[in-house]
Amino acid sequence: MSTEIAIRLGFFLGIFVLVAVCEILAPRRALTTSKASRWFANLMIIGLNPLSVRLVFPVFPAAMALLATERQWGLLNNVDLPYWIEVAMGVVALDLSIYLQHVLHHAIPALWRLHMVHHADLDYDLTTGLRFHPMEIVISMGIKLMMVAALGPPALAVLIFEVALNATSMFNHSNIHIPIAVDRILRRFVVTPDMHRVHHSVIIRETNSNYGFSLPWWDRLFGTYKDQPVKGHTDMIIGLSQFRDPRKLTLPRLLILPFVGNPGQVPINRH
Questions:
Q1: Tell me: the pLDDT tens digits for 176-233?
Q2: Residue 102, number of CB atoms within 10 A of its CB
Q3: Distance (Å, rounded) from C-alpha 172 to C-alpha 183?
Q4: Total Cβ atoms within 10 A of residue 109
């Protein structure tokens, strides 16, 4: 477990710094609110999340994968496949589970209330990709552990998935300018900032699109892909229409937002 944490933390810090520098050197949009106050709230929430998970769960996903292998739990531990195929299948299957989980967080009112904290950010940068309510992170970890136990992927697949998910979440939420021609190629293989930014539009039909985090294929496959925002990336409004006052999005208010905030027109209420 200590090795898994060290690897993930090392990649996290390195990618965080790299993306933060790129945002300064080549920003995609001008920020509309105070970066200092946003980053303070976002980073504090990010700091709370590992503590919340550690209090609830005795193991992390890679350790669960080792336990599943030892006890022969899960599909992949009961079929005879080449190791590299099991690793690849494990990474892809876990990414699909994150896509489906994300859709559920937009469809089920109780989960949407938690997920609102992520969407209520009035600007869009790498810290947005890590800003999730602690209760949502705990639920997400529980689902992830169950998926690992049911699928039985190699521990290497889980570690690759975890590192990739963390890295791509920072990348696809980043405020980095990527030339359109390059973006067109990249989004065939990975979710890009321009692709995922559409999902953070204040327009509901755009919020209900582009759910993918790492692999971009699920949105195309399940019909939730939207190429570009109606108002363009520089003029689109980020966030939720019911939360527009930065003074009401401080750290204490964000922590109680799921319980007192207006959920707005979540998808399940509209269809």
A1: 999 999 999 999 999 999 999 999 999 999 999 999 999 999 999 999 999 999 999 9
A2: 21
A3: 11
A4: 11
Best CA proximity match to 146, nearest among 181, 208, 101, 112: 101
Domain ranges of the chain: 2-270
DSSP string, 135-180: HHHHHHHHHHHHHHHHH---HHHHHHHHHHHHHHHHHHT--B---H
pLDDT digits 0-9 by tens, 62-97: 999 999 999 999 999 999 999 999 999 999 999 999
Pair of tokens at residue 242: 């019911």
Q: Is the pTM of this model over 0.85?
A: yes
Phi, psi of 37 (to 5 degrees): -70, -40
Phi/psi for 18 (5° steps) reads -60, -50
How far, in Å, CA of 183 to CA of 194, rounded?
A: 8
